[in-house]
Specification:
Largest sheet: none
Shape: globular
Number of helices: 5
Strand content: under 5%
Structural class: mainly alpha
Order of helices and strands: HHHHH
Radius of gyration: 17 Å
Length: about 100
């Protein structure tokens, strides 16, 4: 029995991208650009999010290599570090605003 292939839209939804937005974009079958490229062009996701989603898709479809897995882990760690840095900056700004 053949396994169903992971779709990019499902991977993006699992990553926390709005299901409504992804589904709306996915219904545009006649677009000239690839689905992921359209999402980046419209500012719905970033290039990094697309790259992570495509790597995850390859892993789910058992097409990824060990190098893909390493790259995925590195990108996810870098994204987490950036997110933590932004949250720290927000915390500092809020603390300053409250203590004034």
């Amino acid at each position: 029995m053949k396994r169903a292939r992971a779709r990019l839209s499902d991977v993006l939804i699992q990553m926390g991208i709005s299901e409504d937005v992804i589904r709306a974009e996915a219904t545009d079958f006649y677009a000239e650009r690839r689905f992921g490229a359209r999402l980046v062009d419209r500012g719905i996701i970033t290039d990094t999010q697309l790259e992570i989603a495509l790597l995850r898709q390859r892993m789910l479809n058992h097409e990824g290599t060990a190098r893909d897995m390493v790259r995925l882990r590195e990108m996810q760690a870098a994204a987490a570090t950036r997110r933590d840095r932004v949250l720290d900056e927000i915390g500092v700004a809020l603390t300053r605003a409250v203590t004034r």
